[in-house]
Design brief:
single chain, mainly alpha, flat
């Protein structure tokens, strides 16, 4: 139905879309990792993610009474 509404497609358009579709490749590797990641590195990484994600929300919640007292 949409092909009828779009109008006739040209051959150049078909070849261009084919090139775009063939350039996409998946980055999936089936080999095990080269370096083992220890528990210390894992703990450090998880704590950095937690602080990065929860820090701003905690800051806003901690200062919420101050934000309410400010005049608009």
């Amino acid at each position: 139905m949409f092909a009828i509404l779009r109008g006739p497609t040209t051959a150049a358009h078909l070849f261009r879309s084919e090139k775009i579709l063939t350039k996409q490749t998946a980055n999936i590797y089936s080999k095990p990792p080269k370096d083992k990641i220890g528990p210390g590195q894992t703990l450090f990484t998880m704590s950095v993610f937690a602080v990065t994600l929860l820090g701003p929300a905690g800051w806003i919640l901690h200062h919420l009474p101050e934000y309410r007292r400010r005049p608009r």
